[in-house]
Design a protein that fits this description.
Layout lengths: L1 H28 L16 H5 L1
Length: 51
């Protein structure tokens, strides 16, 4: 009977992990590549990285 009590908790953990993975995927897809190779090229993109 102890395993029956863990099923809803396990399902909830799996669901929240999946939602978090989807959110992180969208955040990564929104990142833009800098045009240069130095730190100055990253300054226009800084607000996007911090959000």
């Amino acid at each position: 009977m102890a395993s029956r009590n863990n099923i809803p908790k396990d399902c909830l953990e799996s669901f929240s992990d999946g939602v978090l993975q989807i959110i992180i995927s969208f955040m990564v897809l929104e990142l833009k590549l800098p045009h240069g190779t130095d730190l100055v090229a990253l300054s226009p993109l800084l607000p996007s990285f911090l959000s």
